[in-house]
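In the present case, backbone shapes were mapped to integers, as reproduced here:
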Amino acid sequence: MIVQPFVRSVLAILLIFAATLAPGFAADAPRQKIRIATAAPSLSYFPIYAAVQKGMFAKRGFDVEMIQMAATLTAAALLNRSVDYTIIPSTIATAAARGAAAKVIHFSSVKLQHTLVVRPDVNAITDLAGKKIAGSGFGNLVAYEIQFLIDRYKLGPKTTIINAPSSIDRLIAVQKGLAEAAIIAAPADIKGEEMGLKRLVQMGTLLQIPQAGLAATDEKIKTQRGEVIEVLKAAIDGLEYTANQREDATALIGKWMALTPSQAAKAYDSVKDTYSRDGVPTAEQSKGYIAMLAATAGLNADLPAATIFDFSLSAAAAKELKK
């Protein structure tokens, strides 16, 4: 039977219309709500934030709600299913090491985004022997970094840590001469430079310790693997965007962190090399993370990585994206 051109056109229109009504059609399908627990705005998880803001999660069918909460609450929120994922890995990794059914499944930043900021007359780390270094308390990541410097550079027992809670507090302490140096999180280190202080060394060049990523419960990993893979694809898209879209990423950083264009550009350049390419850390980075947890959370330094990590899904997501 020969179908006339007019009839073929009508049939084509009807087929397109039917397709739009079919289940699963992307344009009409309702998005799946997922909740992600976050810390205060931090460049350590910027690629995930960017993936949300740039529609990378929406493209994969997700409506993301980022819920800011204290780090100490995130493990309970995840395990109680109040949130689906958390970008704060340390609390859930510590809980997993002690038997909780959850894993860290992705790291967006795999090197520290902290800088040793010093007074202008300090020219080398060894100049800090016997001096005061400002940190954010004791038994945490910043204190671990300071102790690393004391040990590695043999600064001696008279080198002391003073407590100043926030990066801005620590910058003021150094500016006023209450301390000679401080560990400062990006992008506050740039503001320290504007205060007349010196950015001496980026800690990520000395310590490859991951800072932020994604964690999920074992149940979600096992029973909702498809969802987890798509979430990780969006997160990896965010990593690729951050690596390759400097101008746009810089503008987004400036808006998010309330920085001037110049400050945002410096912030981007200072952290761009700290991000993973596919969410999977190297063996050295995983080992460094466990060593940090052993020192700050009292975990066994010989803890098997599989107890707290499962990067198989990030690896699978990255592989699918390359197809």
About this structure: The first helix runs from residue 5 to 21. The longest strand covers residues 102-109.
